[in-house]
Design a protein that fits this description.
Chain lengths: ~190, ~240
């Protein structure tokens, strides 16, 4: 049997508060302290960990596309820091699509080339599909071009880049993997 | 130490389970959705009151909305937002308010629909007790939502402390979740608990950290991806 709440007043901010909720603490003051803790700790500083997905501890969001988001993440037992691509909830229309994603991630995991970002792990956790990639800290080619303008690369560097991209694609094609979204934003420089 | 220890507090993300199920029902999605509805009915009730509905109408419409959610009708009209349960619920409520026919039907049916147990009388008392705000209805809804998060996490924290047989300590320390210590506070409490002042300081620090973790865990249940929980909290509490 529930009883009607009783009122009291916060000694600090003088707001009316319920004596029956939050142990009689003032929600306003509680929120303020919590926000401070969030801003100070934020799951990042003081060695505090962030939210988890399976064996990965999620850090900052690195990017977001139509299908999913990429987070900096750390494997909790191996300590390996990765870029974790997580498919957005409800993104897949059905079981066939879900299976295809996992099959493609499996294929990508078998590629091994110095100019390809390695897929280190893939799977599902809490109903979400993910794959973990080697974390490349460098900017994308698109970012580098935006920052430096067309003169950012010498002719020699351009040729070298093109060669590396071509060799990486050849490696993937020979193993039956098509990129299908090749663009400067998807080329990482390290 | 992980932010969300593996102790059952954060077994699944309820809203992502519901979203993954989409239009189709699954026992896990049903259970997750029911839990979310039960937890978050008050902000919705208050939102409907704020939008000019009387106590009885607000209670009936809240029930109608949950009935639609549980029947998954709302997923057809709103479309599963690839976002947060909070946004979804507010959108679904506004759709319902705009649908005069559905409203009339719900209100005519009266007490016919009881998908989620709620005590309208207590809800109204609680609504009356909360300060009148000049915020927009949307912001007001968010504020009440944040209160539910705080409430749920606090209840969990109190349970944990009781399970550790530390209710007495918690009774002394909980005030520091909402305020900084004044000079002499830790000395006084240390004397009462039979521990050194710096031990009190450490326990306060741990308690605050654990509360932050629990609020984060609660928020995770309402977002589409665990990593969005912190952004959700920041947007609610900033």
């Amino acid at each position: 049997m529930m009883t009607a709440p009783t009122a009291t007043v916060c000694p600090r901010c003088r707001q009316a508060v319920s004596a029956d909720r939050l142990g009689g603490l003032c929600p306003q003051c509680l929120s303020r302290t919590l926000l401070r803790a969030l801003l100070a700790g934020g799951g990042g500083q003081d060695g505090a960990a962030g939210p988890r997905l399976g064996d990965y501890e999620l850090g900052e969001e690195l990017g977001r596309g139509a299908m999913g988001a990429v987070y900096r993440a750390r494997h909790v037992t191996l300590g390996q820091v990765v870029a974790l691509k997580v498919v957005l909830a409800g993104e897949f229309a059905g079981e066939a699509e879900r299976r295809r994603f996992l099959a493609e991630a499996g294929q990508a995991a078998r590629l091994d080339h110095p100019n390809l970002v390695r897929v280190l792990n893939y799977g599902e956790a809490e109903g979400r599909q993910f794959y973990a990639m080697e974390l490349v800290e460098g900017p994308t080619l698109a970012e580098a071009l935006r920052a430096g303008g067309p003169g950012r690369f010498t002719m020699h560097e351009r040729a070298s880049l093109l060669g590396q991209v071509a060799r990486a694609l050849q490696h993937a094609h020979e193993r039956g993997v098509l990129h299908r979204d090749l663009k400067p934003g998807n080329i990482l420089l390290d | 130490m992980p932010a969300i220890p593996d102790n059952g507090v954060f077994a699944t993300t309820h809203w992502s389970v519901v979203l993954t199920a989409g239009d189709g029902a699954s026992p896990a999605a049903e259970a997750a959705l029911e839990r979310l509805c039960r937890t978050y009915w008050f902000p919705l009730y208050a939102h409907l009151r704020r939008r000019g509905r009387g106590p009885d109408d607000a209670a009936e419409l809240t029930q109608e909305l949950f009935a639609r959610l549980l029947r998954r009708d709302a997923f057809r009209t709103v479309g599963p937002e690839k976002g947060r349960f909070r946004t979804f619920l507010l959108t679904a409520a506004d759709h319902l308010l705009a649908d005069q026919h559905a409203m009339d039907t719900a209100l005519k049916r009266g007490g016919g629909t009881r998908p989620v147990e709620l005590d309208a009388l207590v809800a109204e008392d609680r609504y009356a007790l909360e300060p009148v705000s000049s915020d927009t209805p949307g912001r007001d809804f968010d504020r009440r939502w944040a209160l539910v998060l705080l409430d749920q996490a606090f209840a969990r924290l109190a349970e944990e402390q009781a399970a550790r047989d530390d209710s007495a300590g918690f009774a002394h320390l909980k005030a520091f979740l909402a305020a900084d210590a004044e000079p002499g506070d830790y000395v006084r409490i240390g004397a009462a608990l039979g521990v050194a002042p710096n031990t009190v300081a450490k326990r306060v620090e741990r308690l605050r950290e654990r509360y932050r973790e629990l609020v984060l865990a609660e928020a995770m249940h309402t977002v589409g991806a665990p990593a969005e929980a912190e952004a959700e909290l920041r947007s609610l509490f900033t």
